[in-house]
Amino acid sequence: MVEPAGAHESLRQEWVEARPDVSYRFVVSPRTLQTADAVARAVLRRKGNWRQRAIADFMRSILRLILGALVIALCGWLSLQSALVVDYLFGVTHHLSSGELLPIVTFVVTFIGLFVGFRVAIRLLARSKSQRLYREFYSDNEFLVEGRKSHLWFDERSAGAIRRWSTFEQLVEFEEGMWLVLRKRTTFAGLRGILISKDSLPNSCTWSELKAYLTQRIEDGAKHEDEVIDASAATRIPN
User: Does the reported pTM lie above 0.90?
Assistant: First the structure.
């Protein structure tokens, strides 16, 4: 839906003139971002009804099984090639006797090394992605969240004002902070929510005050959305 230009102008005017109900400045540490990423993935896995979650879990298990089998097959093939090379270089026959252990040891050591190396590489790749995200969006940046009855202002170049509190789906708190999860749209960095850290800066409201305010506003926004849906449905019912 295209928003009228006047609506944005009124928000800008309110942002300039009206004092916010809550104002919170914060920074995000690498540890907070790492924990928040795990929490976000867990929240997304729980979305939908139990049938959808069961199907998604089943498909993930099948995919992991297939990928695992391919990795094991690749590691086994490479290990076999290394064992054959050792067999050839040392002049032993391909029909190994019980006393010719060098190619067997080569196969086992190569297989373990490749398999462990693959797992380490996957973890390093995931960590590198998280570090790149942190350097690009969170490192040395200070963020501002201001709450008003009409909207929430998030001080970031591609998030800005979120006009309706009903746009938020839920608030998810964890040890280092919270997520304000959106229903459909995304914020900066392609995240489906706003990450707020407990690492607050001076002149900020308290964490408990911020949490209580956001919780109440999101609940009020959800109730208003339900009322609008009910009213819309009632108008479509024939007399």
Answer: no
Residue 143, exposed/middle/buried by CB under 10 A (0-12, 13-18, 19+)?
Answer: buried
- The Cα 58–Cα 47 span in angstroms is 15
Work out the burial of residue 235: count CB atoms within 10 Å of its CB; fewer than 13 is exposed, 13-18 middle, 19 or more buried. exposed
Domain that holds residue 149: 23-30+141-232
Is 35 within a domain?
no
What sign results for the dihedral spanned by CA atoms 212, 216, 172, 147?
Answer: negative
Do residue 181 and residue 97 come from a single domain? no
For 78-114, write each residue's pLDDT tens digit. 998 988 888 777 764 445 454 467 888 888 999 999 9
How many domains in the chain?
A: 2
Asked whether residue 130 falls in the same domain as residue 177, the answer is: no
